[in-house]
Write a structure and sequence with these properties.
Shape: elongated
Radius of gyration: 28 Å
Low-confidence stretches: 229-236, 476-490
Structural class: alpha+beta
Number of strands: 14
Strand order of the largest sheet: 9-5-6-7-11-3-2-13
Largest sheet: 8 strands, antiparallel
Number of helices: 20
Mean pLDDT: 83
Strand content: 5-15%
């Protein structure tokens, strides 16, 4: 596979992070600020009811097209999977998406040469064609960009670092648009228009974001490198039909998705209407930059606080606490009036819980993969994890439709100012901005409370059960035939000690499942070091989300499970690092995992490592050459003949 220089890795991380920055800046502009341009600046005050009708038609088209585009996303993923070029699978689509999306966005921030007034019908037709084209190419770029992490590196540690850099870039890109939107609009406007700017200023803003997104796409293409390998095989395709099939049979995934869908729509409405509040209620749109800046900074701290909060209170309690803060903030926001300190405080309190709730939902959706695997005997990983982006897009589509309707009903269109908004218009606006989201969020919370039972303890129990059965699907006739073809090449397997320390009989460990021999024959180690190394040449057959265990298969068919500690699944990966992935080829002595013994001790758990041969009943001879005393990883501790397919 080769090693990559430190400089090359850093360049790749920074390039990818900048790509995420530009990508999310584009999305924030498209999902939030473009609607403001349409409702407030695309038509002037003289357009009257015609302008309102056009705004209703445009926002309706956006809603319909975004819902339709949800069904196209799986086809986009399949097209990317099938792309083979000298630049790889993803880069052609990232660049194409960046170019087409940026050009179309810049055009959409114009009146198309006055076509919106001179020929409204033609404008709507052209608008629909341009918008769906932009949205499709944005999706190509979106899927390509976020699918690229596994292709950049096969090293888990490097992937984590790359993903971390990307999250930082993404968070800044999403929030910085709110910081710069009004300053840029006003800077390039010839008429300040009571602090709202004019069409020239909004076009300049859209053009700058479009150029930023395009440049960021090119930086990803030039600054990153896809690693080509036989390991990169996409064996499972996601289709719209398959997504709902998974939803229907995995009850925990279904209920969590329904709860999150309602919640996502609710917060998207409030988030999208915040700039309207500053413009038409406060009467000072430029102050919105202050809120966006606070959100950008405080959001980072909220994300960093999640692990300790979840560990101290449990993620379920964090969810309800965050919802409580969110509802209080909506009530405060409702009565904030024109008090800037109250508005900023309420809006920030509304934003902080979003980071925590998103992470709770992400954890539950991720854990539902193992829930479905245990329940149905099949791991629908890619299908399950494709649900959240679909729900986010659906929430955004609902938000776009409601925002357009709100602007029309509240009289916040066609050059209106804060002084033009009536008391009735303000009341309608506040109900749509605070009342409707509160109803949606509380409805989602009620479903979460009543139906979502998948917490940390339940997931730990599920993983424990999966550990006991991880190898069973490997003992099929097909896999035995493959082993039979290889037996002439590997008559015996030499088993090396995977962890340095004191060897002791498996019967002495404080875990009845392992001590009784139900998991297989083997031995235990009181570790003196935190490194876990491959005991033979073979393949990684199973990894676990908590990184506390790993399943291996030797070239001669021997199945081995290395389990670090007792009840360490409860640590949910804290103190564990995984260097390989399922399907990776391994060589004897290669480091697979690393654990920090003090973290296990601090959790009050036993760090004894259990090593078992799970298909020992299919092995002709198994001889443990060392069963006690100190030893170092790499020392030979057992020999065994290859797997006999005829043994039962």
């Amino acid at each position: 596979m080769g090693t990559e220089s430190t400089g090359r890795k850093i360049l790749s991380r920074i390039s990818y992070s900048f790509g995420a920055f530009g990508h999310d800046a584009f999305y924030a502009t498209l999902s939030t600020y473009f609607i403001i341009y349409v409702t407030s600046h695309l038509f002037d005050k003289d357009s009257g009811s015609t302008g309102s009708q056009m705004i209703g038609a445009i926002t309706g088209i956006i809603f319909i097209l975004r819902v339709v585009e949800l069904a196209i996303d799986p086809l986009i993923g399949n097209a990317i999977d099938k792309t083979n070029s000298r630049w790889g699978h993803f880069k052609p689509w990232i660049v194409a998406g960046g170019i087409v999306g940026s050009i179309v966005m810049a055009i959409l921030f114009t009146t198309m040469g006055g076509l919106n007034v001179s020929n409204p019908t033609m404008y709507l037709i052209v608008f629909a064609i341009l918008y769906i084209t932009m949205d499709i190419f944005y999706s190509f770029k979106d899927v390509g960009l976020w699918s690229m992490i596994p292709a950049i590196s096969f090293d888990s540690k490097e992937r984590e670092k790359t993903a971390t850099y990307a999250r930082v870039g993404s968070n800044i890109g999403q929030n910085i648009v709110g910081v710069v939107v009004m300053p840029l609009v006003l800077l390039f406007s010839t008429n300040s228009n009571h602090g709202q700017g004019d069409n020239r200023g909004w076009f300049a803003f859209g053009l700058i974001i479009a150029i930023t997104a395009l440049v960021s796409a090119l930086v990803v293409a030039l600054g990153t490198k896809e690693n080509d390998s036989e390991l990169r095989k996409n064996v499972e395709k996601t289709s719209f039909k398959d997504v709902f099939k998974v939803l229907g049979r995995n009850d925990q995934l279904m209920w969590m998705s329904l709860a999150y869908g309602l919640y996502a729509a609710g917060i998207a409405i409030t988030n999208a209407l915040e700039l309207y509040y500053f413009t038409y209620i406060l009467g000072n749109a430029s102050q919105f930059s202050l809120l966006a800046f606070f959100n950008m900074v405080i959001g980072v701290f909220a994300v960093l606080a999640f692990p300790s909060l979840a560990q101290k209170f449990s993620r379920r309690k964090v969810f309800f606490l965050a919802i409580g803060v969110m509802i209080i903030s909506l009530i405060m926001f409702t009565f904030s009036g024109k008090s800037l300190p109250m508005i900023i405080t309420s809006a920030v309190l509304f934003f902080i819980p979003q980071q925590l709730i998103f992470l709770v939902v992400l954890m539950v959706l991720s854990d539902s993969v193992e829930y479905g695997q245990l329940k149905f005997g099949h791991r629908d990983e890619s299908l399950t994890l494709s649900v959240r982006p679909l729900l986010d897009k659906l929430g955004g589509a609902i938000s776009n439709g409601i925002v357009g309707l709100t602007a029309i009903l509240a009289g916040m269109t066609a050059g209106a100012t804060a002084s033009d908004v009536t008391a009735q218009g303000a009341a309608i606006f506040k109900f749509m901005m605070f009342g409707v989201p509160a109803i949606l969020v509380l409805s989602g919370t009620f479903i979460f409370f009543k139906k979502v039972k998948l917490d940390e303890k339940m997931h730990a129990d599920i993983v424990n059960e999966l550990e006991k059965t991880w190898h069973k699907h490997l003992d099929t006739d097909e896999s035995m035939q493959e082993i039979e073809k290889e037996v002439d090449q590997a008559d015996t397997t030499s088993f090396q000690l995977p962890v340095s320390g004191q060897i002791k009989p498996l019967s002495e460990v404080n875990d009845t499942t392992f001590a009784s021999g139900k998991m297989g024959k083997g031995f235990a180690i009181e570790p003196s070091d935190g490194g876990v190394y491959a005991p033979f040449d073979g393949i990684v057959e199973a990894t676990f989300p908590t990184r506390h265990a790993i399943g291996l298969k030797s070239d001669s068919g021997v199945l081995a499970l290395i389990h670090i500690g007792i009840k360490t699944v409860d640590m949910r990966g804290t103190g564990f690092v995984q260097y390989v992935e399922k399907g990776d080829r391994i060589k004897a002595g290669e480091e697979l995992l690393e654990f920090w013994a003090p973290a296990i001790k601090k959790a009050g758990l036993d760090d004894t490592v259990m090593v078992v041969i799970t298909n020992h009943d299919r092995i002709g001879s198994l001889d443990f050459t060392k069963t006690s005393g100190k030893a170092e990883h790499g020392d030979q501790v057992a020999t065994m003949s290859d797997v006999d397919p005829t043994r039962k």
